[in-house]
Amino acid sequence: MKQALIIIDMQEIFFNYPQNYLFKNEQLVININELIKQAHEKNIQVIFIQHTSQNEQDELFEGKNDWKLHKDLLVSSTDKIIKKSKWDSFYQTELLDYLRSNEIEQLIFAGAQTEFCLDTTIRAAFSLGYQKNLLFKETHSTLNGVILNASDIINHHESIWNNRFLTVIDGETKL
Known about the structure:
The chain is α/β, with parallel strands linked by helices. It is built from 5 helices and 6 strands; from the N terminus they run βααββαβαβαβ. The protein has one domain (3-169): 3-Layer(aba) Sandwich (Rossmann fold), CATH 3.40.50.
């Protein structure tokens, strides 16, 4: 089964300011880089999704420092970068066409934020026919919310996703 690793919104905005730090952000980058290394070794396509605002005043406007992919990610020249402007990585982007033209059958998800862009994209992928997807624990994260802390948000979403929208893999991060 041909796979693609999709890494959503791992951008500098989540690393530049303490109020925006993702839960366990340093370990998150290490874990995602481990997935990237393995994907590159196994010739699995790596796709970075980059949230891009249309508003020049926004910190995620294309070209601004906060908009850039995190500097420590192992981005290769063979990786695909797709810009999106909404929570759904498929909405008005080339992602679906790219996956179909490359005959990708299974998606491996990672990135931020758990309850926003990651959740929306995981559910959209399932509805679009990608129903055997994977997610490794500790390869996605979010911020503390008003009602729930980041850890609870992550656990809640994993419990909803697992065996419905994808398979959550607990243990060693091994593709």
